[in-house]
Amino acid sequence: MSSASTGGTSATGGEQSLARGAVFGAVAGAAAYVLGYLVTYVTQSGRVEEGLSGINFFADLFGGETISVWRGVGWVFYNAHFVDVEVPSLIGAAQSVNFIAESDGGFTYLYVVPPLLLLVSGVAIARAAGAATPVGGARFGALATAGYLPLALIGAFLFRYAVGDGGSVAPTLVTAVLLAGIVYPALFGAVGGAAAGATAE
């Protein structure tokens, strides 16, 4: 009786930890995405606005929709996850562009921003869930995907800029979902969670 009761209590405790980890995972993952975008906006909005000024001048001149700075910053934010932005070409197929890689190297540090924030999220999730081992911590930390993935998917559409004949400038959808939305939070969240579990008292 005592053994069964203990087993039931342990199972219930495990379920509660998992539920708590899932909730914190959704919150921490979403926070990491939003903070990553905000860091990119604060540090790069001026550069993006300057880069868009020529295009927006002609768009405005011919009555077209100008490209908002917040949307251009979104492209750079996805580039920081190694997600290319598809740009329609006047001749042939669309081109894939990474504005960070094609820059003069002045803001390559942005590549570090998403992993760093997700590592911190993984630590926070594992601590909140009470992970006591590296393996348990990694499992909880990977739950950052619950919050990061939906926003990565929404952002891929939100940062889309429509051009003529049905074309658009936007993060590549497949890699935005698979790489930015799943691989990044699962990998770096798990590493952060494992570190938290390994150092748990």
TrEMBL record:
Organism the protein comes from: Halorubrum tropicale
Alphabetically ordered keywords of this record: Membrane, Transmembrane, Transmembrane helix
Cross-referenced InterPro entries: DUF7978 (IPR058284)
Name of this chain's protein: Transporter
Pfam families, alphabetized: DUF7978
Positions of the DUF7978 domain: 9-198
Residue intervals passing through the bilayer: 21-42, 108-128, 140-161, 173-198
